[in-house]
Amino acid sequence: MKKNRIITDLEDMEVQNWLKQLSDYAYAVLSKIPRRQYIIDQQAGFNKRKS
Question: 0.90 cut: is pTM over it?
Fold first, then answer.
């Protein structure tokens, strides 16, 4: 993908591939957080109390 290109065409296969790679990388990093589900559950509890 060209540098500094604005991502507007979600039908573009190059954009879709880039978004998929970004998503896969983010998931790989986030899945390594110790006690991840506990943190998610705690945040959900805070959100319920806030609203």
Answer: no
